[in-house]
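pinned: reference chain
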Amino acid sequence: MGAHTARPPSQQRTLPGASGSGGQRHLRDPRRPFSDEQLARRLARAGFVIARRTIAKYREEEGILPSRLRRRVPVVKTAMRELAAVAAR
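pinned: its structure tokens
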């Protein structure tokens, strides 16, 4: 069997949008986490074809919530909007 050798940095694959500080900020934005489908598409563009259901399987095994439950919306802004809507009635 052949030994696994690491690729030099110039040949390593990265996710689209993951290079540079701007891409990394987007990858970690807690208000807009990637869905399983979005992750599958991004991985496919990078050359890693993985089904959405496979991503979901491993996400569940690791105890990671679905994107809609991981989304963090600033509570204060949401509460202020709700109060303004009630006051406007």
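why pinned: The radius of gyration is 19 Å. Confidence is low (pLDDT under 50) at residues 19-25.
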